[in-house]
What we know:
Shape: globular
Strand content: under 5%
Oligomer: single chain
Order of helices and strands: HHHHHHHHHEEHH
CATH architecture: Orthogonal Bundle
Low-confidence stretches: none
Number of strands: 2
Helix content: 55-70%
Amino acid sequence: MEKLLLMLELQKQLNDATNGEEWAVKKVTKNGKAINWKRCIYMECAEIIDSFAWKHWKSIDAKVDWDNVQIEIVDIMHFVLSLAIEQYAQKGENSLEQIAKDMAQNKLFAQVQKNELSFAPSQEVMQQVEYVMFLVLQRDNFDLTQLFEQFYKLIVMGALDLDSLYKLYVGKNILNQFRQDNGYKAGTYIKVWNGKEDNVVMMQLWQNNPNYTPDELYADLEKEYNKLK
């Protein structure tokens, strides 16, 4: 539960900084832009699908980009946490501790803690991704608990456990903050760094420095980004 709470705290901090502190209640940013976390989730799900050679008419021998599958799962985690914070706030419940407790009590959360890391068959992963999409596309019968459950399944099928998910989440959270600080909203941010997407650079930095603090990761991202300028 501790890692879930830490991720929720980081997510709220990022959302507060990016969208203003009333985003969860008003469902709009400080700039008046409507927020739709469900749409964020299913659009990221579509990006996972594109990590597979699913097209029967094009690049049929291409290999699965499993690294990107994991990155996209972590991206979805950002939006699942944001949606959870919003859903609780809409009911007047603002305790991140309660959200973390409810997430940890989900019957499938134990699977995420098993440390049994292996990728599921491609077709099964894509079917699970599409089921997550189906859940968030429900307008009248949306069930947050069921979303947690099916997302936990996807985490395990993507060869992630709580520890690896947490590490990648923190890395991507810091990268997202770095993006916001460097013109992401204005459209001036450079996402490809010397031929590598910033996600890839972030993962390589983590792999080379497994004992990073968030501040150290941010500082090294800044060093790499400044090389482009």
